């Protein structure tokens, strides 16, 4: 269940990254969304190894990173 959720978050982050890069390409965009992708991938690996609580925390952190990135990037434009 958490693996599927993590994969869905990764896809959503990747789509948001592509949309964001088309509208305003910047290194900050790639950095923030890259961090969120890494955290989502980490959640998948942790779920496979049985660390589901930690994976949920990492996934929440990844989702929070995307929201924070979106807020910071919109404030800089």
From TrEMBL:
Q: What keywords are assigned to this protein?
A: Membrane, Transmembrane, Transmembrane helix
What's the domain of life for this entry? Bacteria
Membrane-spanning regions, if any? 26-47, 54-73
- The answer to whether the entry has keyword Membrane is yes
The name under which this protein is listed is Uncharacterized protein
